[in-house]
């Protein structure tokens, strides 16, 4: 039976982790590879690096991070942030990424999704959708795509864009509710479900996790097949194992293998 | 002992190579693992690995575009019976035909077609992406030695929308369940092929790779 996935996400800037990773036994908590190894050993089902490096010169650092991670971790790795061209994807895949997530570039130019999927296969193209709920309370749900870290509205309907992204070749969607991100009040379940029910491909729920029940809700009520979280793991509030055990207790089939 | 990982432009060879290097490092025979697009080097290797991600037709064309590679594979794997491991689309290429987007001939080592997966529950997502358990036929196989399989066993990492429907049940070593029974591993003589990614499957995957290095078909 296919299991739901728990995916820790590390923000990386100039080759260093920016939001603290608070584990014992980490020699260098700022090294994304050390953090990746810890998550690998802890039973994470996948790993996500979000490269938030602003400078052009700093961008090459992510290739080194991915390459060193692939030497040590034998699980799937997705890399996102600043992916704008086919050449960016090629370099990340060669470095050892399994999947690449495209965000702003896909919104600006949806044909980039098609180009990427045709070149590298849908299985490695994740389209990342950052959306906010924009309807007035009591009105029918309406979700709009925002870019640039949630600052720039686009006027694009998130569910319609999700369908289009899949039609163009996206193999998976990472759906982040920008109005929940950082609030710890839980995923926006209405958003997650609206998109998950509208597309045939897997959806990863993201943005707003504050406790383990939120992860259960993402799968059970949001119809996601994977849940992504950052701070609750990085700051040691919960371990990966605790998250998976909690989800399993709630009736969700989880992979509980001992790791290497 | 040497292990050639065939490079024909089909995606991510880095992680396959790293997983083999890791398994090789822990291995008594410390095999020499290399990635190559040189048919002569593949011909001289003791074991051959064919990875692959992406679309079937692209992979087949990519393989055919490497000078002499298909001939060497047919000779070394078919005639000289060297141990062979196909991974994902590399496994699917062992089939007679692929029916993804267009019908295209495979290497035709194991009879059957690569066709779209159609789970009986329409709400299930395609691609089949993530960790699943595998069910192995009773006779087992040397490449799975010491590895727990079945519903309570270890998990394998899959990401694919098509699967290898073998013509003969005996060529199918393991299956997985996704509202339907689909091929997880094919095995025939000196050939083995996994739909999942052993290089991404932690204990099950590294164990399988290690067993493959020991395997004497």
From TrEMBL, chain A:
Active site: 11, 130
Any one of the GO BP annotations: L-histidine biosynthetic process
Pathway given in the UniProt record: Amino-acid biosynthesis; L-histidine biosynthesis; L-histidine from 5-phospho-alpha-D-ribose 1-diphosphate: step 5/9
Record Gene3D superfamilies: Aldolase class I
Coiled-coil residue spans: none
Enzyme Commission designation: 4.3.2.10
Family per similarity comment: Belongs to the HisA/HisF family.
NCBIfam families in alphabetical order: hisF
HAMAP family: HisF
Name of this chain's protein: Imidazole glycerol phosphate synthase subunit HisF
Lineage of the species this protein comes from: Bacteria, Pseudomonadati, Pseudomonadota, Alphaproteobacteria, Hyphomicrobiales
From TrEMBL, chain B:
Domain (Glutamine amidotransferase) ranges: 5-210
Keywords: Amino-acid biosynthesis, Cytoplasm, Glutamine amidotransferase, Histidine biosynthesis, Hydrolase, Lyase
Protein name (database record): Imidazole glycerol phosphate synthase subunit HisH
Protease found in the keyword field: no
EC number(s) stated in the UniProt entry for this protein: 4.3.2.10, 3.5.1.2
Active site, renumbered: 88, 197, 199
Reaction catalyzed: 5-[(5-phospho-1-deoxy-D-ribulos-1-ylimino)methylamino]-1-(5-phospho-beta-D-ribosyl)imidazole-4-carboxamide + L-glutamine = D-erythro-1-(imidazol-4-yl)glycerol 3-phosphate + 5-amino-1-(5-phospho-beta-D-ribosyl)imidazole-4-carboxamide + L-glutamate + H(+); L-glutamine + H2O = L-glutamate + NH4(+)
Gene name in the database record: hisH
Biological role stated in the UniProt entry: IGPS catalyzes the conversion of PRFAR and glutamine to IGP, AICAR and glutamate. The HisH subunit catalyzes the hydrolysis of glutamine to glutamate and ammonia as part of the synthesis of IGP and AICAR. The resulting ammonia molecule is channeled to the active site of HisF.
Organism: Roseibium limicola
Amino-acid biosynthesis among keywords: yes
Gene Ontology molecular functions: glutaminase activity; imidazoleglycerol-phosphate synthase activity; lyase activity
Principal localisation: cytoplasm
């Amino acid at each position: 039976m296919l299991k739901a996935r728990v995916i820790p996400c590390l923000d990386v800037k100039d080759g260093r982790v920016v939001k603290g990773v608070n584990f014992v036994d980490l020699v260098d908590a700022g090294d994304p590879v050390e953090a990746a190894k810890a998550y690998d050993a802890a039973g994470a089902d996948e790993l996500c690096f979000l490269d938030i490096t602003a400078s052009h010169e700093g961008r090459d650092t992510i290739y080194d991070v991915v390459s060193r991670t692939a030497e040590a971790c034998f699980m799937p790795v997705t890399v996102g942030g600043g992916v704008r061209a086919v050449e960016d994807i090629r370099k990340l895949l060669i470095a050892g990424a399994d999947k690449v997530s495209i965000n702003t570039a896909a919104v600006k130019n949806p044909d980039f999704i098609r180009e990427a999927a045709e070149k590298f296969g849908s299985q490695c193209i994740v389209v990342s959708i950052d959306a906010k709920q924009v309807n007035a309370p009591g009105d029918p749900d309406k979700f709009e795509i925002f870019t640039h870290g949630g600052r720039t509205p686009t006027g694009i309907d998130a569910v319609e864009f999700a369908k289009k992204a899949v039609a163009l070749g996206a193999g998976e969607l990472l759906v982040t509710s920008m109005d929940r991100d950082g609030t710890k009040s839980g995923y926006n379940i209405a958003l997650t479900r609206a998109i998950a029910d509208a597309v045939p491909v897997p959806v990863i729920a993201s943005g707003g996790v504050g406790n383990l029940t939120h992860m259960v809700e993402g799968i059970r009520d949001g119809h996601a097949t994977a849940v992504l979280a950052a701070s609750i793991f990085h700051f040691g509030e919960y371990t990966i194992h605790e998250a998976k055990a909690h989800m399993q207790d709630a009736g969700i089939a989880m992979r509980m293998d001992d790791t290497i | 002992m040497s292990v050639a990982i065939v490079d024909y432009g089909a995606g991510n060879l880095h992680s396959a190579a790293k997983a083999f290097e890791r398994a090789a490092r822990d291995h008594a025979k410390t095999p020499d693992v290399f990635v190559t697009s040189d048919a002569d080097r593949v011909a001289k290797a003791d074991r051959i690995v064919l990875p692959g991600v992406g679309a079937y037709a692209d992979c087949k064309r990519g393989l055919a575009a490497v000078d002499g590679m298909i001939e060497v594979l047919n000779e070394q794997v078919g005639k000289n019976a060297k141990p062979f491991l196909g991974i994902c689309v590399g496994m699917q290429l062992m089939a007679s035909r692929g029916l993804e987007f267009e019908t295209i001939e495979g290497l035709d080592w194991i009879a059957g077609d690569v066709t779209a997966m159609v789970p009986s529950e329409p709400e299930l997502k395609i691609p089949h992406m993530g960790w699943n358990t595998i069910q192995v036929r009773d006779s087992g196989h040397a490449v799975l030695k010491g590895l727990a399989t079945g519903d309570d066993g270890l998990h394998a990492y899959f990401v694919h929308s098509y699967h290898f429907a073998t013509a003969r049940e005996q060529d199918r070593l393991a299956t997985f369940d996704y509202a339907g029974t689909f091929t997880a591993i094919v095995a025939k003589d000196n050939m083995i092929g996994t739909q999942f990614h052993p290089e991404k499957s932690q204990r099950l995957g590294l164990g399988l790779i290690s067993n493959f290095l020991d395997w004497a078909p």
